[in-house]
Amino acid sequence: MKTTISQVHKYVGEEVTIGAWLASKRSSGKIAFLQLRDGTGFIQGVMVKAEVEEDIFLKAKGLTQESSLYVTGVVREDERSPFGYELGVTNVEVIHEAIDYPITPKKHGPEFLMDNRHLWIRHKRQHAVMKVRNEIIRATYEFFNDNGFVKVDPPILTGASAEGTTELFHTKYFDEDAYLSQSGQLYMEAAAMALGKVFSFGPTFRAEKSKTRRHLIEFWMIEPEMAFVEHAESLEVQEQYVSYVVQSVLKNCELELKHLGRDVTKLEKIQAPFPRITYDEAIDLLHEKGFDDIEWGEDFGAPHETAIAESYDKPVFITHYPAKIKSFYMQPDPNRPEVALCADLIAPEGYGEIIGGSQRIHDLEMMEERYEAHGLTGEAYNWYLELRKYGSVPHSGFGLGLERTVAWITGVEHVRETIPFPRLLNRLYP
């Protein structure tokens, strides 16, 4: 019976064959222990010399790291294994012998590992991170589909910036200028006017010359937009979504979190509702914590966000930022126009902002004023302005950065481990 490691629980006491790679091995004179992986999981294979032909045992003892194999053996329960099962190996067929695999069990530096990222992702820790990432993606689709959202794919090549910044990757689109998308948000607003509640899930690009552990040049964003939804209701959607994703990971990635050494008691607390503080209250809190240099009207950096998050064991919303430090499309608070109806969601444990969102301006005259104030001239933004001409409604949306969320949930230190092939300031290989 041919099967996979993830399915061996169905065949206890039976002989199966698994296509696998040899992650590592150790052996004594009489027993060979083979650590096997097949992409679906990891299992230990045990071959006893007295139970197999001598040439088979010698072949098993001579296997090299990352050689590909067909391994045959009897599935048995094993309480000592985190996986719960092991394989009593009766035969090994070598498909391809790997020679001098570069990532050995010794300690390697991050640059060496990143140069060999195409191989490093095979290893158990990286496998666990990628499985958690996959579960977050699966749970994301499930949450939005179950809540009446329609998946829409905005373009990656755009004629202008969504954020009005200069951190863009420029390219030529035949005889026109084009840019790699920083965000699908503007297009998602158009989609929300057609379909009500929508979400996108795709790559975004920021030509930001940053080397921090929180930044990537290419990353993935989940960007919902909702017609007839105002600021307070949008915050509820955000906390429900994040809670849903975290609880799904706890339920379906127990082995992966255990291997990563993640303190799951911290994740178990991630249940809506989340605390909310205003920007004004955040400034006061920072002053109390000794950040005397931060003044009203300045944006928060990573140390500020970490200090604020330390006061909470759940993600915390910081709301009502000064409008002048936020994007042109954010709706001002009607009771206090100098602040916007917006919020950033700050993850616990120093992982920083994982969501930015706001209610969008829906009034045509106000948006025209913002266009003029931000110098948004030319035809590139005309279509976006027209959304306020033809049946405009209050609407809100947000964007969640996938890699920062993976880093927080898994507990890894740097976002470079949260995407299969990271693009960093000085890294375009492999």
Automatic annotation (TrEMBL):
Record CDD domains: AsnRS_cyto_like_N, AsxRS_core
Gene3D superfamilies: Bira Bifunctional Protein, Domain 2, Nucleic acid-binding proteins
Subcellular location: Cytoplasm
GO cellular component: cytoplasm
Known EC number: 6.1.1.22
One Pfam family linked to the record: tRNA_anti-codon
Chief location bin: cytoplasm
GO biological process: asparaginyl-tRNA aminoacylation
Reactions the enzyme catalyzes: tRNA(Asn) + L-asparagine + ATP = L-asparaginyl-tRNA(Asn) + AMP + diphosphate + H(+)
Residue ranges annotated for the Aminoacyl-transfer RNA synthetases class-II family profile domain, each copy included: 130-430
UniProt keyword terms in alphabetical order: Aminoacyl-tRNA synthetase, ATP-binding, Cytoplasm, Ligase, Nucleotide-binding, Protein biosynthesis
InterPro entries in UniProt: Aa-tRNA-synt_II, aa-tRNA-synth_II, aa-tRNA-synth_II/BPL/LPL, Asn-tRNA-ligase, Asp/Asn-tRNA-synth_IIb, NA-bd_OB-fold, NA-bd_OB_tRNA
GO molecular function annotations of the record: asparagine-tRNA ligase activity; ATP binding; catalytic activity, acting on a protein; nucleic acid binding; transferase activity
HAMAP family reported for this sequence: Asn_tRNA_synth (MF_00534)
Family: Belongs to the class-II aminoacyl-tRNA synthetase family.
Description of how the protein assembles with itself and partners: Homodimer.
Name of the protein in its database record: Asparagine--tRNA ligase
Species: Bacillus solimangrovi
